Amino acid sequence: MSTFAEVFGTEPDGAWRAPGRVNLIGEHTDYNDGLVLPIALPNRIAVSASAREDGVVAVSSNGQEGVVEFTLDSLQPGSVPDWAAYPAGAAWVLREAGYGIGGANLLFDSDLPSGAGLSSSAALLCASAVALLGLRGIEVDPAEVARLAQRAENQYVGAPVGLMDQMASMCCTEGHALYFDIRAMTTDQIPFAPADDDLTLLVIDVKAPHRHVDGEYAARRRSCEQAAAALGVPALRSIELDQLDDALARLDDDVDRRRVRHVVTEIRRVEDAVALMRAGRLREVGPLFTASHASLRDDFEITVPELDVAVDTALAAGALGARMTGGGFGGCIIALVEAAAAEQVFAAIEKAFAEHGFRAPTSLAADPSAGASRVR
Question: Same structural domain for residues 185 and 201?
Answer without folding.
Answer: no
